[in-house]
Amino acid sequence: MLLAQHVLSCGTKSLIFLPIDRSEPGPSLTELFRMMTTASSCSHTEQAPILYWLSTLGVRYPKRQPTMRTWFIQIFVCFACWLVATPALAQPGEAPTSETPDAAGEPSGDPSTPVDEPARKSEYQRHLDNGVKLYRDGNYPAAIAEFQEAYKAEPKASPLINLALSYKKLFQYAKAIKVLEQALGKHAETMKPAHKQAAEREARELKALLAWVTVRLSPPTAQLFIDDERVAFEDALKPLALSPGGHKFRAQADGYKELEVSQTVTSGMNNPSVTLTLQPTTGELIVTAFHANAWIEVDGKMRNQGTWKGPLAPGVHAVRVLRDGDAYTIQVVVQEGGRYTVNQGDDGELESNATAPLEGSEKDPFGVVVPEILRGFYGLGSGALLTSIVKTESFVADERNRWGAAGGLHLGYRVANWAAFEGMGQFSDVRVEGTVKDVPTQYTLQTVRFAGMMRIMLPGHTMVRFVATVGAGLLIESLHWKERHLLTDGNGTIDPLYEDTNGIGPFAEIDLGVEVELSNVLIDLMVQNSVQSTKHFDHGEAELNAFDGNTHLVIGPAIRVGYGLW
Fold first, then answer.
1. Which DSSP state fits 497?
2. Predicted pLDDT of residue 74
3. Residue 1 burial (CB count, 10 A)
4. For the chain, how are helix, strand and coil distributed in percent, rounded to 5?
């Protein structure tokens, strides 16, 4: 039987036998190594027929008793074939390829193949191919971005495997392990057994390279960053897996100075812990009033009843305790990291372990301004009972039936203890019964008012104070007459002065009353006084109206309830 002469071709996955004389000797040991090298450069599916043929070379020689050399060659070749056929995630220097089987086990395409119309490529394939090219160019961060987009387009194992290879090139072993475990956890069922085993082996090998470090934070609520990447709070509480080498550890928290340290770590669990103790930028103040219902005010802002604890910036601060119209004041000096108390005795006086002199209330000896001005936004909803008062010769009002209701909203900003500026909007409906030339009738005024107003509060710090608002604006008003068909002139014709009409005119307003403040809740009892023109009701060329052009007064009690943010 003739011994086959071999021709190996990885591209065509073929093995061609040509008949020659049986008496010719088989391939030498050097030729065997050449064929093994050829097989190792092929893919696993291409290796199969070649390696099978190499492993059986020893039985294709002419019939003769096998020598010790023949047995040695057969054993050596079989062992070499087993080594070559073992799959690996990536050999040194081997780039990821878009030929990596996807989740369905089918090739994803060859990135080296020219594409005439790139637009026809799927988004997944485009990102995967670009990632492979960037990887081969050594641009691993860009390759990572492309593989991540490929995985977003189609969640498969292939992009994750390529991500792991890219992270490994950047020596980011923890991230490489994470994506390998993601591939095995989510896509194991779609991975070929050989690929799955290779990924598991690679993850084990990378874990052996990791450095484990414990970070101790103070305060424990501080946010940790490693190499400028945020670490989740729950992860910062346990040992962290890092790549060996130098790392930057940074911590930050509200009210504390940011701190950063650098430390080199090595593989294993024996790395010293990293301690980040942040220094506070504020001090803590605890205020305790003698009576549980007394209000505590710090820097002009109501804080709480009975007790209050909170952080304060370094400097001088004003503390007041208010109850039943009595106010007791003390100034304290707060320093970074300090803890201070203010306690009220049974005589009402305040004592502190951080007392500042009351002289020179504008500034403390260190030049820190003491905040004593109350400032902030506020809002009030209002309701009112209003009556219309206007003097006219033709209309005689019934004093018992001239009431209406109104609702509105006041929004403003307090600029000082005694002053604020606000905008007001209000709708009112007032109905007045009376007679015109002994004919019973009724007029209805429906009014929308908009005004800018100044608010005056005296005194500004107390819980009960006098309040006045003064301002002016525009109104949109409509006038309706009841039984107007009976309102005729001397000739029996309906008088045009009593036509239903509307218009826009000016008005001025001044409101007076008392305000009660309970923990920034505002309750106002007011008297509203709106003085408005009637010229917008004029008829015809004579420019006359049913009110003879007289000034119209709308007045009545009002209640307002709201909240102040000062």
1. G
2. 58
3. 8
4. 25, 40, 35
52 token code pair: 């099978």
Residue type, 355: T
The Cα 340–Cα 165 span in angstroms is 56
DSSP state for residue 459 in the 8-state scheme: S
d(CA 471, CA 515): 18
A 10 A CB-CB count for 432 gives: 21
Per-residue pLDDT for 33 more than 60? Answer: no
Q: What is the pTM of this model?
A: 0.38
Q: Is the pLDDT of residue 163 over 60?
A: yes
Do β-strands 326-334 and 315-323 pair in parallel, antiparallel, or remain unpaired? antiparallel
Q: Could you report the per-residue pLDDT of 300-322, keeping only the tens digit for each?
A: 899 999 999 988 888 889 999 99
CB 421 within 8 A of CB 453: yes
Q: How many CB atoms lie within 10 A of CB 300?
A: 19
Q: CA 294 to CA 306: how far, in whole Å? A: 6
Strands across the sheet containing 283-288: 307-312, 283-288, 339-344, 350-352
Contact call for residues 344 and 294 (beta carbons, < 8 A): yes
Residue 415 to residue 179: CA distance in whole angstroms: 57
Bin 4: left if φ > 0, else alpha if -120 < ψ < 50, else beta. beta
**Strand, helix or coil at 450?**
strand
DSSP tag of 486: G
DSSP annotation of 334: E
The pLDDT tens digits of the residues spanning 493-510 come to 777 778 888 899 999 999
Contact indicator for 321, 305 with CB cutoff of 8 Å: no
Q: b/e string for 480-501 if b means 16 or more Cβ within 10 A?
A: bbeebeebeeeeeeebebbbeb
Q: What phi and psi, each to the nearest 5 degrees, are found at residue 92?
A: -55, 130
Q: What is the mean pLDDT of residues 411-436?
A: 92
Asked whether 534 and 390 are in contact (CB, 8 A), the reply is yes
Do 345 and 351 form a contact (C-beta atoms < 8 A)?
A: yes
Per the CB < 8 A criterion, the answer to whether 244 and 211 are in contact is yes
Return the number of other C-beta atoms located less than 10 Å from residue 321's C-beta: 24
Phi/psi for 54 (5° steps) reads: -65, -40
The 3-state secondary structure of 386-419, one letter per residue? EEEECCCCCEEECCCCCEEEEEEEEEEEECCCCE
CA distance 410 to 530: 15
For residue 522 the two structure tokens come to 């505002």
User: Which amino acid, residue 365?
Assistant: P
Query: How far is Cα 276 from Cα 252, in angstroms, rounded to an integer?
Result: 10
Q: Tell me: the pLDDT tens digits for 116-160?
A: 344 457 888 999 999 999 999 999 999 999 999 999 998 988 898
Pairing of strands 521-532, 552-564: antiparallel
Q: Is 559 helix (H, G, I), strand (E, B) or coil?
A: strand
Strand partners, 378: 412, 564
Handedness of CA 374, 377, 381, 385 (dihedral sign): positive
Mean of all residue pLDDT scores within the chain: 77
Residue 164 parent element (H or E): helix 157-169
Largest CA distance in the chain: 150
